[in-house]
C-alpha cells in the first residue's frame, strides 16, 4: 500500500506515514482483532516531523495487557490487506501478550474503546440466548403495544451482513411510539420498563427514553440489550440517543423483516432510511472505529427532553466496580462520629451516598439500624455481605437523586416504616451531585425526617483538594437548601483542611432538623 | 481572533442591535431548554401519581407495600 506506511510499532504505540485519505486500520494480536483506529482522525502529527508522519498511542484500556511480547498485524479494514506485521517486545517479561477476561473469554475493544467479549469471538451456543432474548423481548414489547425492531449496530449488522457486527458488544432495540410529545413517550417508556421487569428481566434506566435489559448467556456472561424509544413529531423522527431528522412515517410502517443469523426480526419498512439517519450516507462501508457525529441541535434537544437522570453516574459506577473487591475501609468519618454523639441509641440512620459503606457499616456496628443508599450500589456489596455475616442491622438500597420517582417512592416507603427517631447522613453527596440532586436530597430529608429527625451534612467548600468528582458547596448553600425544604439549621461549622478527617480540602458541616 | 472581531464590532456599535439580538437569542435558548426539562419531571410526577396514588387512597397496607416494591423494582 503506497499511500500508508508503518514506521514503527512499539511499546508507545504506532507511527505511520499517511499520504492517502483517512481509513480504518485494524490492529490484530496473534491474528485476532483487538482494536481499530482511523489513520487521520485518531492520530496526531509526529513531534517535529513533516506532516504525513503521524502517531497514535495505545488506548489506556489496552496498556495493562501489554506486557511481554506479541505478534502484531496492522490490516486495512476494508481491503483486508496487511499493512504491517511483526513481533513486538512491549516489556522484558517472559510472556505473550494476551487479551482475555477473568473468565478466560477472549476480549477486544469495542467502538467506545472499552474491553468486552465481542460477537466475533462468540459461538452459536453463546449467541443463541441473546437471539432468544431479543425475540422474547420483542414479544413482551409487542404485548405492551409497541412494535420494536433491532436498531443501531444490530440493525446495521443485520442489513449489511445478516449477522452481528463482529466488533460490537451489545444488541440494540428501537421503537417509534404512536404518541407525539415527550411527556407521553417518557411515560410509555416507564411503563415498558415495568412490563419487562415483570417478565423477569433485570433492567437499568439510562434516561427518560432508554433503558437496558440484562441477559445472562449460556456461559454465565451478562450481555446487555438496550431499548431506545423514539417518536415522530412534525415530520421529524427523534430516536434516542442519536437521531433527530426529517422522516416519513411510511419509511417505518408497516414493519418489514430483516434476517439476523438466520432468524427473522421486524425491521422498519425502509431500513436504509433509518440507517442513513443513524450512520450517515456511508453506512454501507464497514467502520469498526465508528464515532457518532450527531448534530449539536439533536444532542441538545435529546439532552433537554430526556437526559440528566444520573449526574456522573458512569464515573461512580466505574469507581464502585474497581473497588468492589477491596475490604471496606475501617473506622468512620468525623461526621458519623458526630451523628453518634448527637443521636439516641437505636435511631434509624439513612446514609445517602454511602459509597463503599464505611460509615454505614460502622453505624450499624454501633447499634444504629442503618440503610445505605447509593446510585452505584455495587460499591456497597462488600459492606452488605460483612453486615449479613456479622448479623448487623444494615440494609443496602439503590437510590438515584436525579430521578424524582426514586426520591418520591422512597420518601413514601420510609414514611410507612415505623415511628422511631431518624437521622440522615449526607457526607459528600451534595457536592457530588447536581442541582437537581441537591434539591432531591432536601426533599427526601423533608419526607423522611419529619417529626424531629436530624440531617448531618458535610461538603467540600472549595479550598484545597476536594476529591474526585466533587464541586464546591458552601455551608450557606446548604443552609438555604435546608430552609427551602422546611428544615431548621441547628449547627454550622467549617474547617480549612478536612478537619479531623485529615483530608486536604476545606469542609463545611451543617446539622439541621425537621419538626 | 473571533473574539477580537466581536469586541471591535461592539465598540463600533455600542449597545447596538446585533448584541441585543444575540443576548435575546441566548436568553430564549435558555428558556426553551428550561421548558424542555419540565417534560421529564412532569412525566415522573404523573407516573408516581398513577402507580402509587390508587393503592394509597385505598388504604390497603399490603397493596401499598406491594405497589411501592413493584414500582422501585422497575426504576
Fold and architecture overview:
- Chain A is of the alpha+beta class.
- Chain A has helices spanning 124-143, 152-161, 182-198, 271-279, 296-306, 313-323, 334-342, 358-365, 381-390, 404-415, 435-448, 475-484, and strands spanning 4-9, 13-18, 24-29, 32-38, 44-45, 53-57, 69-76, 82-89, 108-109, 115-116, 148-150, 171-177, 202-207, 210-216, 222-233, 236-239, 243-246, 256-260, 263-267, 348-352, 370-374, 394-398, 422-427, 454-464, 488-495, 505-513.
- Chain A has three domains: 4-99, Sandwich (Immunoglobulin-like), CATH 2.60.40; 119-306, Beta Polymerase, domain 2 (2-Layer Sandwich); 313-513, Rossmann fold, CATH 3.40.50.
- In chain A, a hairpin with a 2-residue loop joins strand 15 and strand 16 (236-239).
- In chain A, helix 2 (152-161) packs across helix 4 (271-279) and helix 8 runs parallel beside helix 9.
- The termini of chain A are far apart.
- With 75 residues, chain B is mainly alpha-helical.
- Chain B has one domain (2-73).
- Chain B contains three helices and no strands.
- Chain B has helices spanning 2-12, 17-57, 61-73.
- In chain B, helix 2 (17-57) packs across helix 3 (61-73).
- The radius of gyration of chain B is 25 Å and the shape is rod-shaped.
- The model of chain B has no long low-confidence stretch (mean pLDDT 84).
- Chain A binds chain B through residues 181-184, 186-187, 190, 193-194, 196-198, 203, 205, 208, 300-301, 304-306, 308-309, 398, 400, 403-406, 408-410, 412-413, 416, and chain B through 32-33, 36-37, 39-48, 52, 56, 61, 64-65, 68, 70-75.
Features of the shown structure:
heterodimer, A: alpha+beta, Immunoglobulin-like, Beta Polymerase, domain 2, Rossmann fold, globular, B: mainly alpha
What layout of secondary structure does this protein have?
The complex is a heterodimer of chains A (515) and B (75).
Chain A: E1 4-9, E2 13-18, E3 24-29, E4 32-38, E5 44-45, E6 53-57, E7 69-76, E8 82-89, E9 108-109, E10 115-116, H1 124-143, E11 148-150, H2 152-161, E12 171-177, H3 182-198, E13 202-207, E14 210-216, E15 222-233, E16 236-239, E17 243-246, E18 256-260, E19 263-267, H4 271-279, H5 296-306, H6 313-323, H7 334-342, E20 348-352, H8 358-365, E21 370-374, H9 381-390, E22 394-398, H10 404-415, E23 422-427, H11 435-448, E24 454-464, H12 475-484, E25 488-495, E26 505-513
Parallel strand pairs in A: 12-15, 20-21, 20-23, 21-22, 23-24
Antiparallel strand pairs in A: 1-2, 2-6, 3-4, 3-7, 5-6, 7-8, 9-10, 11-12, 13-14, 14-15, 15-16, 16-17, 18-19, 24-26, 25-26
Helix pairs in contact in A: 2-4, 8-9, 10-11
Chain B: H1 2-12, H2 17-57, H3 61-73
Helix pairs in contact in B: 2-3
